[in-house]
Amino acid sequence: MLVAFNPNVGSTPDYTITVTGLPQSCAGPSKTFNITVNPTPTITCPANMTVASDVGVCNKTVNYTPTVTGTPAPTLSYVLTGATTGSGSGSGSGLKFNVGVTTVTITATNICATVTCSFTITVTDSQLPTVTTQPANRTVCAGSNATFTVVAVTAPSAGGPIAYQWQLWNGSTWNNIAGATAATLTLNSVTQTMNTNSYRVQLTGLCSTVFSNFATLYVNPLPTINLTTSIPPALLPTQVLTITATTAPGGGSYVWFKNGVVIPGATGNTLAGLTVSDIGTYRVVYTDGNGCVATSANVDITGQPSDNLYVYPVPNQECSMLGSITKQMSR
Predict the structure, then answer these.
(1) Left (φ > 0), alpha (ψ -120 to 50) or beta: where does 278 sit?
(2) Can you give the chain as a three-state secondary structure string?
(3) Structure confidence by residue, pLDDT tens digits, 257-295
(4) Residue range 122-137, pLDDT digits in tens
(5) Hey, do 129-220 and 224-310 end up sharing a CATH topology, with the first three levels equal?
(6) CATH of domain 42-124
(7) How is domain 129-220 classified at the architecture level of CATH?
(8) How would you classify the pairing of strands 67-69 and 184-187?
(9) For residue 214, what are the contacts with CB-CB under 8 A and spacing of at least 6?
(10) Does domain 224-310 have CATH number 3.90.1150.180?
(11) Which residues, 6+ apart, have CB-to-CB distance to 158 below 8 Å?
């Protein structure tokens, strides 16, 4: 005889089956069987957890308790993936979890079934570097130095370790700048080709790495300046010369020098009325609207040798009739 049925899980009381022999067949005593139906195991994980790492290390011991039911009592095992990896028997409670996000999967198994649940443990970095002052854009003239500075601290005491590494954007990736490992990046004698370069700094603390905002370098070209003279600068006593400065871009300011000394009041693009009385070396320093400076080449004003004898300047009107006196040169 075969008896088949589907008992309900967790039925109370247990099922009882009594088997009795039929009179027309083999006679015998009845037999009673008790059938116990155990429920399948269940497991409920804790809610996702967020904790802070301990000071001085990059992990945190985390305790938790999953809710497990089942008869017989299920055995537990765990698997860790993500910031922390590993596996073993039990729930994994009491282990050290690394900074970052770890997924914990717990499995409950008995003779009836195997069930699982998962949750995450997020360990935040208690010593994460924090940028308090971001690098700022810089505008300089070609040939000048440019500096970028970042200010960063770490919790909890603002005295944790921070390693700096400045990086340059090449259009597709950030690349480390050799030797640029301080809070300030100094670029010496920048060139026009560095215009619109972008820089950022990588900050590495005890456990984690963060990045500053990027800052852009703007390089203004130096102005150009060229001096011309109205006549050749080797002068005779009666000649008057003007020096003219041609600049690009225009609209800037001028400071003229004679023999290295500033000429008072000479602030235009021309220096006029120069005679043999003004023999010397002249130059001009030009500053454009961006504050970029260019210095001209020197113009040397000299006296021109002559076989004529000049009375210069004419001492008074009565002597103006003298004109020039020709000196007969004897050899």
Answers:
(1) alpha
(2) CCCCCCCCCCCCCCEEEEECCCCCCCCCCCEEEEECCCCCCEEECCCCEEEECCCCCCEEEECCCCEEECCCCCEEEEEEEECCCEEEECCCCCEEEECEEEEEEEEEECCCCEEEEEEEEEEECCCCEEEEECCCCEEEECCCCEEEECEEEECCCCCCCCEEEEEEECCCCEEECCCCCCCEEEECCCCHHHCCCEEEEEEECCCCEEECCCEEEEEECCCEEEEEECCCCEECCCCCEEEEEEEECCCCEEEEEECCEECCCCCCCEEEEECHHHCEEEEEEEECCCCCEEECCCEEEEECCCCEEECCCCCCHHHHHHCEEECCCCC
(3) 999 999 999 999 999 999 999 999 999 999 999 999 999
(4) 999 999 999 999 999 9
(5) yes
(6) 2.60.40.10
(7) Sandwich (2.60)
(8) unpaired
(9) 135, 169, 198, 199, 200
(10) no
(11) none
Residue-range domain boundaries for the chain: 42-124, 129-220, 224-310
Sheet holding 75-82, edge to edge: 49-52, 114-124, 100-109, 75-82, 86-89
146 is written with which tokens?
């440019």
Amino acid (one-letter) located at 213:
N
- Is the pLDDT confidence value at 180 over 60? yes
Taking the C-alpha atoms of residue 202 and residue 219, their distance in angstroms, rounded to an integer, is: 24
The C-alpha atoms of residue 322 and residue 331 are separated, in whole angstroms, by 26
Tokens 């935040």 belong to 124
Strand partners, 101: 122
At CA 231, angle to CA 226 and CA 233, rounded to 5? Answer: 75
- Gap between the Cα atoms of 123 and 222, Å rounded: 53
Q: Which residues are within 8 A (CB) of 236 and not within 5 positions of it... i.e. 6 or more apart?
A: 276, 303, 304, 306, 308, 310
Whether this prediction's pTM lies above 0.85 is answered by no
How far apart CA 257 and CA 238 sit, in angstroms, is 24
Radius of gyration of the chain (CA): 47
Mean predicted confidence (pLDDT) in 21-50: 78
Q: Nearest Cα to 207, choosing from 96, 123, 81, 121?
A: 123
CA proximity to 46, closest of 97, 113, 91: 91
